[in-house]
Amino acid sequence: MGESFATLLACVLLEQRIILLGNVPQSSLMALLLRACIWPFRWLHLFMAAPPPLDIRKAVPLLDSMTPMLLTLSEFPAEWGCRSLYQLPKDVICGTLKRSHVHRSPELETSGGLKGEEIKLPADRHKRLSGQFEIAKKRLKKGEYDIVAAVAFVQDAIEHEITLLAGVVKEYAQHRIALSQKSPTEEGVAESDASFCDRCIRQACEPAAIEEWLTSSGCTSTGTKHSLSFFLSFFQTQLFIDLLEQQVCATTQGGVA
């Protein structure tokens, strides 16, 4: 369970096209949990915590869409022509909850260069989070935890990982604000807070600026190719840009980030 959840969490953070396959209560709960536990990041794409009805499946080409999605199913719809997860498009990730397995096509590649099976949390974070699930499971089995304590233990572990990731965004936002303050648009021309905020965010989202900071910053643990590829992928997601905008605007317009 821990391994598959950590993998699904990484898939959500990298805004992949995800299907959760299982009975309705189970898949719906997992979808809602994944969306909730990434706060302060926000999932801004297609989200269906209940299997879509037939009229929606016929009207909306879910498999043909190129946008991120988090979709729940109890079984593959007949009209999709897929009898197994191996017949899904290569960019669709399928979490089969009954087997605690996450299928990622070897042909899948993220925007930052991660291959399908490489989609995991960076550095040792994936192993660490998976291990926390196992610790909670063992303590529950030994009677050291009741179910409430076990859930709280796992929740704290998830929150810790998300807080670390949000901290990276905040640090990058502060870095870009400082650079933008040193490079005004035109000498002697006043710039509104809103205009400065827009300029700072636009420059912060430039691929060259992102890669330069990632390769020089120690906070992202980009000492490995996998970690660098994870963050290069993550920094191109809408949920990253959304939190970056919040951080920049809150700082430049006098708010509290």
How would you describe this structure in keywords?
257 residues, alpha/beta
Set down the secondary structure blueprint.
Blueprint: H1 2-13, E1 17-21, H2 24-37, E2 46-48, H3 54-59, E3 69-73, E4 92-96, E5 101-103, H4 125-141, H5 147-182, H6 193-204, H7 207-216, H8 225-234, H9 238-252
Parallel strand pairs: 1-3, 1-4, 2-3
Antiparallel strand pairs: 4-5
Report a brief summary of the structure.
The protein is an alpha/beta fold.
| Most strands sheet | 5 strands, mixed
Structural class: alpha/beta
What shape does the CA trace take? globular
Q: Percent of residues in helical segments?
A: 40-55%
Beta-strand percentage range: 5-15%
Gyration radius, in Å: 20 Å
**What is the helix/strand order?**
HEHEHEEEHHHHHH
How many helices? The count is 9
- Number of beta strands: 5
Mean pLDDT value: 88
Spatial order of the strands forming the largest sheet: 2-3-1-4-5
Low-confidence stretches: none
How far the N terminus sits from the C terminus, by CA atoms, comes to 34 Å
Describe what this molecule looks like in 3D:
- With 257 residues, the chain is of the alpha/beta class.
- 51% of the residues lie in helices and 8% in strands.
- The chain is built from nine helices and five strands.
- It has helices at residues 2-13, 24-37, 54-59, 125-141, 147-182, 193-204, 207-216, 225-234, 238-252; strands at residues 17-21, 46-48, 69-73, 92-96, 101-103.
- The protein has a five-stranded mixed β-sheet, covered by helices on one side.
- A hairpin with a 4-residue loop joins strand 4 (92-96) and strand 5 (101-103).
- The two termini are 34 Å apart.
- The model has no long low-confidence stretch (mean pLDDT 88).
